[in-house]
């Protein structure tokens, strides 16, 4: 397969190096950029994020990346907060809802997990829907690594679900936009397999 032009969007709010190393380990060259032209020319785009939705959206807006990301037609993979930024809004800010990128219908809400502790942190099993493209060749109930207190409910756009005091979307998919709540770059072989599946789309 020809070498692909893979770009990680420098949102200004993510530990990008771990995603970059994970993709490079699969034999790919990676560019980290917030340059609109470079992002638009990519074959595959990664949208990582950590921290709060309002800080991340403010950073993306400041870099004038919102309409650029919304207009992408190639496969885009949001990771952790990057996935949460793909939906319509997040209630992570205490004062009001943060409008997000609106690429996939849904909203981010604080997890209701009873007596379990938040954040949901560590390894948990993931159940993909049938024919989920990113989970091709990955065993059902494989373990992935999570760190989050907010989640997106199950919907028709859920590509995989997870259970922690409640069911939530472990992965989302609509059109060319994919998102995973877990960290594939920290999820051992299953995570590497998922990243390869995305790059091979």
Automatic annotation (TrEMBL):
It comes from Paraglaciecola arctica BSs20135. The keyword Transmembrane helix does not apply. SUPFAM superfamilies: Class I glutamine amidotransferase-like. One of its GO terms (biological process) is L-histidine biosynthetic process. One of its GO terms (cellular component) is cytoplasm. Pathway: Amino-acid biosynthesis; L-histidine biosynthesis; L-histidine from 5-phospho-alpha-D-ribose 1-diphosphate: step 5/9. The lineage of its organism: Bacteria, Pseudomonadati, Pseudomonadota, Gammaproteobacteria, Alteromonadales. This is Imidazole glycerol phosphate synthase subunit HisH. It catalyses: L-glutamine + H2O = L-glutamate + NH4(+); 5-[(5-phospho-1-deoxy-D-ribulos-1-ylimino)methylamino]-1-(5-phospho-beta-D-ribosyl)imidazole-4-carboxamide + L-glutamine = D-erythro-1-(imidazol-4-yl)glycerol 3-phosphate + 5-amino-1-(5-phospho-beta-D-ribosyl)imidazole-4-carboxamide + L-glutamate + H(+). IGPS catalyzes the conversion of PRFAR and glutamine to IGP, AICAR and glutamate. The HisH subunit catalyzes the hydrolysis of glutamine to glutamate and ammonia as part of the synthesis of IGP and AICAR. The resulting ammonia molecule is channeled to the active site of HisF. The gene is hisH.
